[in-house]
Amino acid sequence: MEKLPCSSFSLQKIFLAFFVAVGSIVTLGDAGCIAERRKPWWPHKGCMINGKIYPLGHIERTEFCYKCDCEKDQIRCCSCMIDPPQYDGEKCKVIFNRKTCDYDVVQKDDPSKECFSYSRMC
Questions:
Q1: Distance between CA atoms of 59 and 53, rounded to whole angstroms?
Q2: From residue 109, how far is each of 89, 91, 93, 117 by CA, in Å?
Q3: For this UniProt entry, which segments traverse the membrane (predicted)?
């Protein structure tokens, strides 16, 4: 079997694609926390998450509903998303609200009206 040449740049692109895919799965699946070591192309005074640069320190909430800690040598992020709340599935439906990183429970017949539910926020 012949080995194919692989540049470090293409390995970086593959890793970045993998990280974005895993990040999406974590975001959509309420799968807890992830950590990543610093990459050479990251800015010296920050971390890169899903292509966006964040400063060193605590990040209360990213646009993809993570709470993160950006440090000199790594970044650790935990999903803010929770399981959908308990609600009446016959009369109501759940809609994820990316602005609040929470679920809105609304009536199926009239989505402008909320349903009673047990809900938590990050």
A1: 11
A2: 12, 8, 10, 17
A3: 14-35
Per-residue pLDDT of the chain (122 residues; tens, 9 = 90+): 455 454 554 545 544 444 444 444 444 444 589 898 888 877 778 888 888 888 999 999 888 888 999 998 899 999 877 777 788 889 999 888 888 888 888 999 999 998 877 655 55
**Which residue, among 24, 9, 10, has the nearest Cα to 63 in the 3D structure?**
24
**Edge-to-edge order in the sheet of strand 33-37:** 33-37, 74-79, 66-70, 57-59
CA angle 107, 113, 115 (to 5 degrees): 55
Class assignment of domain 82-117? mainly beta
pTM: 0.54
